[in-house]
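User: Fold this one for me? It's TINAG protein.
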Amino acid sequence: MWLKSQILLLYCIASEVWMTKQLDSRRNFPQGLYSVEDGGSAKWNRLKRSLYQGRSCRVRGCCTGRNDDCNFNIISKAAICYCDQFCASDSPGPVDCCADYWDVCDHPIEPTRSDEPWPPPASGCYKDGRYYGEGTIIKDNCNSCKCFQSLWKCSKEVCLVRQDLIQYINSGDYGWKADNYSQFWGMTVEGGFKKRLGTFPPSHSLLNMKEAPGNSLPEEKFPAFFAATYAWPEWIHDPLDQRSCGASWAFSTASVAADRIAIHSKGQFTDNLSAQNLVSCDTRNQHGCNGGSIDGAWRYLKTHGVVSYACYPSFWNDHLEASGENHCYVSSEYGKNYTNEPCPNALEESNQLYRCASHYRVSSKETDIMKEIMDKGPVQGMVSLEDD
Ligand SMILES: *[C@@H]1O[C@H](CO)[C@@H](O)[C@H](O)[C@H]1NC(C)=O
Ligand SMILES: *[C@@H]1O[C@H](CO)[C@@H](O)[C@H](O)[C@H]1NC(C)=O
Ligand SMILES: *[C@@H]1O[C@H](CO)[C@@H](O)[C@H](O)[C@H]1NC(C)=O
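Assistant: Here's what I get for TINAG protein.
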């Protein structure tokens, strides 16, 4: 067995050497002389292609037009194959292309010459056809890879965006489609849990909160379609972007409160509310971008109130970034309608504080929730996310 495969291997190498030697000379003749098709060489071409895959053009890079320097030494200096377009120009005639030319270079898009050093250095690594020197560190989605003794050594984190998972979901019948959201590219699943969520599980007191009495209608009394943005087009605010700040507790509360204040005041107060105000100033048992509780946020909205988004914009002075300290830039006192100082954003004049009455819990009956939304506006809900 061993002997056999050795023989086969030698034979194929010999065949390639022979072919490239023969065809090399073609470069010295006017075109058209070698237009006779050779079935035998096509056959060998196929065989050796499977044996030499990834050895020549993939390493050498492809070149446009005719470029006699765009070659690859196979065994000895005398045996050369080419990775330029010219090698395949006599279609379907004889070729002096390298075995993997058809796989690597023969695409409808223009072949591009690679920037790789030539001849290839003794050490270093390749990724997607690019050469990286020994010791280079690159990022591959959420993992970092180091070229060590010509091999990539990568960390083995589970990434938030995974091509295989996207394909798996989209080939099944799950009722939704997965996509590569570029803002999540490069994050680990663990990082996603930490930075893209951020509401603590409900406290005992929140779970034991008495539900407001439901006054729901039978289901058929509801309209077939209802959307808050259609019912109150001027008063519903766009969703807020928490970026990589795990403070959904503050962002969702600011957003729901702003909608409800606008609806309740019949359009007298339509300002966006400052989630940053909550993240940075509501610090009692709250942890800013590392998570917090929604009942704490609602209590803060009742006692202190928050300013508008324009007054205290999100990510003000980068203070929501992980490295930044979480400094509160407004001070509010109980019972006052304005902060003690001007807005952090000097361009905004109004330092008015917005407050809410006590928060309450809606019954978990679906029609009770529908009635609540139709009468008073958006509600806030919590979902528990698990990795499966
Ligand atoms: C996903 O998106 C990122 C950023 O836009 C991109 O760099 C990456 O190649 C994409 N990955 C896949 C598998 O499509
Ligand atoms: C709320 O903020 C968004 C940007 O996040 C802005 O486009 C919109 O005009 C703001 N609305 C109000 C009422 O300030
Ligand atoms: C604050 O505003 C509320 C409602 O507009 C008003 O009733 C109250 O008198 C104001 N308080 C102060 C101290 O101005």
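One thing worth pointing out: The chain has four domains: 2-27+36-104, 125-154, 163-187, 192-388.
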